[in-house]
Q: What sequence folds into this?
């Protein structure tokens, strides 16, 4: 396992509890460590990073998203930040596709009915969901995960549309049959299913604001496996209540692990506890990637997954 390998290779202190480290513990760790390996639950803001000890050289994040780390502050102090891209792409895309299928075909609602012993017999119009074949999927953020989702959606007969700062190379667009929208609002207003697959940054904070949510087609299904901060969660709860969206599938939340109470208890809202990369294989690969980044740096080379502020 990753923990064993870390202990073999480094003088490692591991937090193997289920609880995230407190702010004080994090501050203390930043004082005594050469390398810190945070996860998404470790908020490394500018103040904490400013208090880091002289010996801290590297923050090797266990995960692809680094929105919980003030990368500017770290880089400003000469601390290298790395992440673990690539190794969780397929798993996260699988989960996004799972949520699309679960919401469109009312999987959780149906499973709950059977589990409660309430399946009383089939009827022609009972528990009908929505067909995916031929429907328009709008992907916001066409990086690795967005493209992996596009591949899956295409296999399900969906028409792939995407918004990204830049269009993907022609070869990839052709392979995916994907249409680029420069204007996010125009795309959002025309989609049947929307999936968020972009990082959380200052620019993408509340990308789906109350105003944008109000302009979606009422039959839209909204999926988020990226970061909760991309959606104004309170506004989404209102939209669900007002039936301004037909279905929602979320694996991430604005104030994780809290979930807006207005999102609970709706059969058309499927909520998962941040499972995107939760396969044994991906988590092992993420750990290996962290180790590779630390080792490369230790050996005087540029770590393969260095995060530079301009990338975000
Ligand atoms: C992890 C993730 O669960 O990689 C990411 O960005 O959100 C997930 O893979 C989490 O980040 C672990 O730190």
A:
């Amino acid at each position: 396992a990753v923990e064993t390998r870390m202990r073999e290779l480094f003088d490692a202190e591991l937090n193997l509890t289920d609880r995230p480290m407190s702010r004080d513990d994090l501050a203390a760790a930043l004082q005594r460590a050469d390398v810190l390996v945070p996860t998404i639950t470790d908020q490394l803001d500018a103040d904490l990073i400013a208090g880091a000890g002289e010996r801290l050289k590297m923050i090797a994040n266990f995960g692809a998203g680094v929105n919980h780390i003030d990368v500017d502050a770290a880089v400003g102090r000469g601390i290298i930040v790395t992440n673990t891209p690539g190794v969780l792409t397929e798993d996260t895309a699988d989960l996004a596709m799972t949520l699309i299928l679960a919401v469109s075909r009312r999987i959780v609602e149906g499973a709950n009915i059977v589990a409660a012993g309430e399946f009383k017999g089939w009827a022609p119009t009972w528990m009908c969901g929505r067909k995916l074949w031929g429907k328009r999927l709008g992907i916001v953020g066409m990086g690795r995960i967005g493209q992996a989702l596009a591949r899956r959606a295409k296999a399900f007969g969906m028409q792939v549309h995407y918004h990204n700062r830049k269009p993907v190379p022609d070869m990839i667009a052709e392979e995916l049959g994907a249409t680029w929208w420069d204007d996010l609002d125009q795309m959002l207003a025309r989609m049947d299913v929307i999936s968020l697959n972009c990082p959380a940054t200052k620019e993408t904070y509340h990308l789906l604001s109350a105003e944008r949510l109000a302009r979606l087609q009422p039959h839209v299904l909204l999926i988020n496996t990226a970061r909760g901060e991309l959606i104004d969660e309170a506004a989404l709860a209102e939209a669900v209540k007002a039936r301004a969206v037909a279905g929602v599938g979320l694996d991430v939340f604005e104030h994780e692990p809290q979930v807006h109470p207005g999102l609970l208890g709706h059969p058309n809202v499927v909520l998962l506890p941040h499972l995107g990369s939760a396969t044994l294989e991906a988590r092992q690969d993420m750990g290996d990637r962290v180790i590779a980044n630390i080792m490369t740096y230790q050996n005087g080379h540029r770590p393969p997954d260095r995060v530079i502020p301009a990338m975000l």
